[in-house]
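Q: Sequence in, structure out?
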Amino acid sequence: MKKRGIGISVGTHPAGLKGGGDPSQAQIRLKPDGTFDLLNGAVDIGQGCKTILRQLAADELDVPLENITHQNIDTDTGPMCTGTFASRVTFMDGNAVLAAAADLKRKIREWAAEYFECSPADVEVANNKVFVKGVPEKSLTMGEVGAMVNWGGKFLVGTGAYTPGPGQQFDPETGKMTAIASLAFGCCVAEVEVDTETGVVDVLKLVQVFEVGKAMNRLLCKGQNNGGAMMGIGFGLTENVCPYYPSMDFAVHDLTDYVITTAADMPPVMVEDIVEVPHPNGPRGAKGYSEMTASLAGPAILNAIHNAIGVWVTDYPATPERILKALEAARA
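A: Exactly. Output:
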C-alpha cells in the first residue's frame, strides 16, 4: 500500500563563526586600461562568490561588471580570508570588498582633484567616468584615468578588511553565545509517498523558502536553493557511510557504494523562493545562507514519512530497511 504525507521543517543558520573573530581582506587596483583587478582569498566552490564579489566592487565603483576581474590564485600572497566555509564569504568578504572599492574611489578622487585643480569633494566617480561636479568639460573616462595614473608613475590600490567583531567563547554554564554577524532563516515543506510493502519513499513535492537579507544575484540563489535541496534529499533518504553504526559492517569505502541523489531523483514538483529583509550590517543588506539550503529537506522528509505511515524514523537516512523495521516494531 502506498501512503502519502506532508512534513515541515524550519531552521536558521549564521553567517561566519557564530562568535565572530573571522576577518577577511580585499585589495583592488586600477589597471592601465581602466579596468580593475580584485584580489581576495575567497575560493569559489560553486556558490558564486567570484560573481558576487565582482558585483559589489562594480556597484561601489559604478563601473561595468565585466571591468572587474577577480583574482584568488594564491592564498599565500593575496589578501587574507579566514576561509570559504560557514556561509561567510558574501557577508565578510563582501564587506571587505566594499571597503577596498571605497578606498580606491577615494584615492581616484584625490588624484583627479590634483589633475583638475579642485577639491576632492568636488570630484565624482560614476558611470565609468571621473569628473568635476557641474563642470562637464572636466571629465575623463576610467580608461583615460587608468592610462594617465599608471603611465604617469602612480599606482592606485584600494584595500579593505572586515570582521564582525572579536572572537568570543561559549558561556560554560549555559552554552550561550551571541551571534555576531547575521542569522538567516528558512522553511521547507515536503510531500512524500511511502510504499509500506517495500519501504521505498518517493518525494513528490518540495517547497523551500529562505530569508536571505538582500539577494545579490537571484539566479545564484535559485541554483543554491535547488542544489541544496538535492543534497538534503540525499541526506534524508540515501547517503550513509556507516549503515550499522557503531558497527563498521558494510561501511562504505568508496563512492561506488555511496548513494547520492541525481537529477533523476528530484521531485516532480519543486518550488523555491526567497524573502528579502536587508541586514543593517550586510554588504548592500545581504546575508550568507548557502549551507542552510541542504539542512531542511531531510527533517521535512522524515516528518512527512511519519505523517504518511504513523511511525517515526529517527535516524538518517530513512532507508527502506529502516522504514520496514519501524513499521514492524509498531505492529509488534
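The chain is about 30% helix and 25% strand.
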